[in-house]
């Protein structure tokens, strides 16, 4: 959970400017239509299971969710991907193996950091599933989330609440980390529970000193009304326009990255959530391209609160296991704050200051973790795996699960970040890189 005062960040999916048709030597341009009927001219580049990369006439490439496209264009993407898949080789007299077409992920070198993006209106259209105020159970759905509220909320209010959730999901999936945001196994949508009072929230398991929390055990995000900017005016709840909801962004980031949490060091888990929280937001526009300003504003705020710009022993921080982290973080809120601050400084370095300054090493690291999430997903879908009560499962001895041990699983891809360098060398590079941005950091 985030320990510091927060600000609302509305993440967004890529906005594509309407352009005239253009020709290119190596690309075939065609009209593409989104679900709202807006048309652009672009060329197909590649696709994943849930997104497509298009090239505009100016040469820039944009990754979009397949769900944003009209049905005809979704079918076109699938046909392109299937056509690109090689036919399986067969031996004489042997029937060909039947395999599903494979959709390739966007190559690391073709990924770009988003600039200004806006969450689509369609994502925050609200469906009322159930409204029973007497039973304190009202259920609403947006495109990717299901909200169970203790009180009835007007459609316009619920839409504003959903905007933050949907925007955060879109932000995380738009970053070049390559995170595929899918609801946990067995859920059609991500789940959130909204509580009228902090007392209700704490009774449901919310930590005393938190404004909201994602619990990976039952896959539910729990948050009290005040933490999402809801206030009671007469007999109706309204959204506070001055509300600052960065803590909410932090926890939603954990929620949409749930499949990755098992395979990430704690500093990456908290550092990426702090990263999304610190990005500038204004009037519906999420400035992902102003990440340096977001970082410096965050550093200024932390300095005002008496925190030093330091990481200390880099190797100890990057290799810190969860037991050690919890032991430090649970000491005092300040100790927790120090760990969070150190983590976002490290994540920012690997995303924007390391090596080619395009985050290539970090993106490769996250891609390796994506491979772990797919291996885990494949394992649990296998009919040989039996799901038991309490989240337990059984499996044959000749079909072991992927490594999910907290002592080893989060650290097996750290070598991709080191890339042959010692920790002391990276510490030196980090010091110099931050110095070039005007930030003096202490790290060894």
What does this structure look like?
The radius of gyration is 23 Å and the shape is globular. The chain has helices spanning 71-84, 155-174, 198-203, 246-256, 258-261, 266-278, 291-304, 314-318, 322-329, 333-353, 360-381, 414-418, 423-436; strands spanning 29-33, 39-47, 51-55, 61-65, 116-117, 127-132, 137-141, 145-149, 190-195, 213-215, 220-224, 230-233, 236-239, 281-282, 285-287, 310-312, 386-387, 393-394, 442-443. It has 444 residues and is an alpha+beta fold. The protein has a six-stranded mixed beta sheet with strand order 6-7-8-9-11-10. Strands 1-2-3-4 form a four-stranded antiparallel beta sheet. Strands 5-15-14 form a three-stranded antiparallel beta sheet, with no helix packed on it. Helix 2 (155-174) packs across helix 4 (246-256).
Structure described in brief:
With 444 residues, this protein is an alpha+beta fold. It has helices at 71-84, 155-174, 198-203, 246-256, 258-261, 266-278, 291-304, 314-318, 322-329, 333-353, 360-381, 414-418, 423-436, and strands at 29-33, 39-47, 51-55, 61-65, 116-117, 127-132, 137-141, 145-149, 190-195, 213-215, 220-224, 230-233, 236-239, 281-282, 285-287, 310-312, 386-387, 393-394, 442-443. Strand 10 (213-215) and strand 11 (220-224) form a beta hairpin.
